[in-house]
Amino acid sequence: MNARSQIVAASGDGIKPGELLMDVRNVSLRFGGVKAITDISFDVRKGEIRAIIGPNGAGKTSMLNVINGFYTPQEGVIVFRGVERRAMKPHQAVTQGIARTFQNVALFKGMSTLDNIMAGRSVHMNRGLGWQLLWHGPALREEIEHREKVEEIIDFLEIQHIRKTPVGKLPYGLQKRVELGRALAMEPSLLLLDEPMAGMNLEEKEDMSRFIVDVNQQRGTTICLIEHDMGVVMDLSDRVVVLDYGKKIADGVPEEVKASQAVIDAYLGVAH
Amino acid sequence: MSATAQAGGIVMDTFPKYLLRNAERFGAQPAMRHKDYGIWQTWTWAQQLGHIRDFALGFQELGLKRGERVGIVGANRPRLYWAMTAVQSLGAIPVPVYADAVAEELAYVLNNSGVRFAIVQDQEQVDKIQSFASEIPHLEYIIFDEPRGLQDYDREGLYDFAAVEQRGVDLRKPDPGLAKAWEDNVRAGSGDDISVMLYTSGTTGRSKGVMIKGSHAVAAAVDTVVFDKLTENDSVLAYLPLAWVGDHYLNYAQGYVSGFCVNCPEGAETVAQDLREIAPTFYFAPPRVFETLLTNVRIRMEDASWLKRWMFNHYVEVARKYGEALLEGRPAPLAGRLAYGIGDFLVYGPLKNVLGLSNIRVAYTAGEAIGQDLFSFFRSLGINLKQLYGQTEAFLYVTAQKDGAVRADTVGPAAPNVDIRISESGEVLFKSPGMFSGYYGMEDKTAEVMTDDGFIKTGDAGFFEKDGQLRIIDRAKDVGKLKSGALFAPKYIENVLKFFPNIKEAVAFGDGEDFASAFINIDLTAVGNWAERNNIAYASYQELAGHPLVYKIIAGHVEETNRRLAREPMMAGAQIKRFLVLHKELDADDGELTRTLKVRRAFVAERYAPLIDALYDGAKEKFIDTEVTYEDGRKGRIRATVKIEDARVHPVEPLREAAE
Lengths: 272, 660
Fold this sequence. Notes:
The complex is a heterodimer of chains A (272) and B (660). By secondary structure, chain A is of the alpha/beta class. Helix content of chain A is 36%, strand content 24%. Chain A has 10 helices and 10 strands. Chain A has a 6-stranded mixed beta sheet, sandwiched between helices. A 4-stranded antiparallel beta sheet of chain A has the order 2-1-4-5, covered by helices on one side. In chain A, strand 7 (190-194), helix 7 (202-218) and strand 8 (222-226) form a beta-alpha-beta unit. In chain A, helix 3 (113-120) packs parallel to helix 6 (172-185). The relative contact order of chain A is 0.18. Chain B folds into 3 domains: 9-24 and 38-210 and 242-252, ANL, N-terminal domain (Rossmann fold, 3-Layer(aba) Sandwich); 287-358 and 360-474, Rossmann fold, CATH 3.40.50.12780; 478-646, ANL, C-terminal domain (GMP Synthetase, Chain A, domain 3), CATH 3.30.300. By secondary structure, chain B is of the alpha/beta class. In chain B, a hairpin with a 5-residue loop joins strand 20 and strand 21 (470-475). In chain B, helix 2 packs across helix 6 (161-172). A 5-stranded parallel beta sheet of chain B has the order 6-5-7-8-9, with helices on both faces. In chain B, strands 24-25-26-28-27 form a 5-stranded mixed beta sheet, sandwiched between helices. In chain B, strands 4-3-13-12 form a 4-stranded mixed beta sheet, sandwiched between helices. Classes of the chains: A alpha/beta (272), B alpha/beta (660). Chains A and B meet through helix 5 and helix 7 of A and strand 3 of B.
């Protein structure tokens, strides 16, 4: 019954787990005179959960926006799957296999959970508008294939009961889950999560943590996440980058980061 | 047992025998459905036989022996149902356990029944069992249905259901005699073997393992299948807890005997949608479910346009007048029939369709008292809703109402082949075809509930009405007296209170006291909706429960309750003088309710002793600090100051022929 749920991310990029998936080199981003990010370098290896943390205004979301092409950095390069790129549009990031969720849920509120996740499949749909309108033969077959994938995700995230519910009617925690579902539908090789646990209660946080770990372990998706909640980050991530005022102040496994004096001073508060 | 059927010269006294018969007779008919990945998957009786046989063969190879007990933990899933039959086919005994039980309860049952194997649904259950592995030394093997999340687990003693079944296939392929040997073994099975062990919900103390013999289980099911004319063309939605006698009887036992199709919902949260899609013909739900349905319908109607609201109210009134008469085939005026027909087209039909009750032929409710209004509402829509009374020790049925002789305040005459007697102390005693063979490993407890002439004591106080229907008042040991000598039946009072949609649960006190008093739990759906419509802001259950306006509403309900009690000569003395609204919902996880959601009176009384004292010492409010258990087993504390109010008491009124 569950053979179908044993799916692995489809991206056949030839990169083995543990190898370099993305390398951020000396990236700086300015808005006029404001330096959002200053000379930041870090890498993401395939198959890991990589966290970016930092206090408010540290430049975390800016960093994520740079990665998925929403902002173009003034300096520095990003190498993704061995290809160096400088300027890129978000939709190009999607076709390259980068999907993301947003700090404030960005779903189609009037559409059902199913349709929202289906929207995530559009990147994999090959039939043109003509076929889609006709909705017979190849287009129908394609739709059925995609629906199967969407149903796997619905099963995976345990949201069967809200399949047909308009997303705007759902509680916040569930909306977050639907958003994750839509990102998963793209079958990304890199999944960017912007504060996936923001505004959630403890139970919702625990659920979301479990889903993130499951996505990583069962689907083999590489995850790069921004998170405020230190406890969650330390438990989930393989490696952590810490930003403060747009600068990198630490990088390493959670234990190292926790022990770093710079991090304690900047983020956890200085003990006087 | 007269009812035990014969087929092909074999005495049909076990469910595996019925499996063989059904595969032969209804081979291509659906036996089981389950919604998976959004699509209903169907298995015919022939396919079901194949799965059960192969799993049984693989299981046998793992070392399952005759007479052993096997724990089954999970939601209603085809494989867990198949596992039960597979276990029975090997002469072993399935022990279904409540899947949402907290770790300690689960450990107790698995340990008490001495299981070596447990078949579980998913990772959650595996984790739960492994977390207390040291407390259940007998348990060696866990077989799981859903492998998700279990890839990286240590596979020592951990098996995938599919792999066990595949093992059976691999064994069977080269050896054609094996399948036949298994079938022969099933045919040679004895109805004297224990068919299933069902743990009581533990309203009073630790739960006990009720052993039911195969021949008894089959005999009881044969009786009710005939009684309600169930056939292979019927279907049910199996959403009740697997470990509860109701599910095992109504869905599993009746399913095998009649050959009907058992539909497993996609998940606990999708039951309402699945019900609509399946539209079963036989349905069971506790009163609580019907209450929730009606509350939801009423809330939706309050938000509807005036035209719809008018139509709904008008035709519900029409149904109230003529609906039950038409359902029971009693005479009704032509104008009434016409109006009902239009109402059926405009309101009842669409409403039943939305609720998934369009095809219901027989529906039952039991477990708690049901309000007259609630009961009549569903019956007036043309749903043949009836009441039954039963318990685990009887393998469910003790009484059941016949079509056309249905009342809200009674539970019907004795079910077929059941003998009922009322003891001198007013306790209901029975002897039935499905009666149990004792509590597992507790001969003393078994002896306690049996009379010398083989009747079972139900522990319920009741009496027969003039028309031969049994009426249950309360648990025999809960019925007490006030200091004045007036009869105090707490459940009776609580039921009157609970008929108000705003009150979800109530606990009455008063035995040996000057007057009766009550704890009240508000219904968050109903009261929350009211608060929303009246712009009353609240941040938590606790805040809403303590709101002065909520107290005012509840005070009104208590007063109305007292008015109703005043009309019943036996109950009029025990009206509620003081009450309070509890700051937290009574919860099974905190041990305040049983898994079947009945109040554990003694436990609640002990836990909230300071509040009870406050009810009787005249205090206006009381501080209380309680420990709560979260679903994952962690503990927390809730602190609150609870207000206590006085309620108006009514003089005893003579019973009127009221219009309601």
